[in-house]
Amino acid sequence: MYLGFDTSNYTTSVALFDGVNMYQQKQLLTVKAGEKGLRQSDAVFQHTVNMPELINRLGNNKADIKAVGVSARPRNLEGSYMPCFLVGKNNAVAVSRFASAALYETSHQVGHILAALYSTDKLDLVKEKFIAFHVSGGTTEALLVEPDCDELIKATVIAQSTDLKAGQAIDRAGVMMGYLFPCGKMLDELSQKSDKEYKIKPTMLGLDCSLSGVENKAKAMLDKGESKEDISKFVLSSISAVIDKMTELLLDKYGNLPLVYAGGVMSNTLIKSNIMSKYSAYFAEPEYSCDNACGLAIYAYLKDKNE
Question: Is 239 helix (H, G, I), strand (E, B) or coil?
Fold first, then answer.
């Protein structure tokens, strides 16, 4: 058995992988109405409360744990740190010592990439070079992913948003319209009720993009009394156009590498449909696209097999 822990800023998650089947339990953190996020101290407290119950929900199939994987930081970069990940790390350390199991630390970002590969039955890509998009509330990045002896895979940022992140644009628009954070699911549903078609010219800075104008335009549309359905479709169409253009430019520069899309935003119906209509790409299923610990369980499994 391989156990994974992930305590991101908005989801507590634990997963168990037996080499064939994946079992996971997760809990969204609570954000007060009207708020656009959580303070780290609040996230740490909620993770601490949630984790014992989630471990309990995994049932009685936790015996014979061979290795434990955990996201100890947002990215595998020097200085990458968020207090919320300490909760997952502390639990992982305790379990590994109690079970005399190996402990493997990596990043939240690597967990997202591995969860997407597992979801699409493409774990063999860890031995190849590919392009991965990690698009969420805190990240809008394109990554060149290559095999790495120590880290299993090394993800290097090759394009990103220079300001607002895609998930932030979605959540800010949603909160602006009166919905509870996080707002991705609500905007997805609303956008499908709009018959408007938007021709978006994405704001690009070389390979990078800018998304701050999306929030400003959404506010202007709301002030003019435009429907929430149309505003939702505009926001998601704008993000789709940016991801599309980044993909096009990156394939031009790096060649026809495999494309993998991960992160909560990439589970959106409109964005996924638009990208898949133009490119041969791998998208994680929604349960593996949003924050989860499955990728960390996979990390422990693959590292254990490579030892």
Answer: helix
CA distances from 175 to 105, 205, 222, 227 (A): 35, 28, 12, 15
Segments of the chain with pLDDT less than 70:
60-63
Asked if 243 and 133 touch (Cβ cutoff 8 Å), the reply is yes
User: Helices 184-191 and 166-176 meet at what angle, rounded to 10?
Assistant: 80
Sheet of 22-28: strands edge to edge? Answer: 22-28, 11-17, 2-7, 67-73, 102-107
- Please list the alpha-helical segments (H only) found in 120-265: 166-176, 184-191, 212-223, 228-254
Element (H, E) at 47: helix 40-57
pLDDT by residue (tens digit) across 156-167? 999 999 999 999
What would the two tokens of residue 25 be?
């339990």
- How many Cβ atoms from other residues are within 10 Å of residue 164's Cβ? 18
Helix then strand then coil, in percent of the chain rounded to 5, is 45, 25, 30
β-sheet bridge partners, residue 283: 261
The residue assigned the tokens 């394939």 is 251
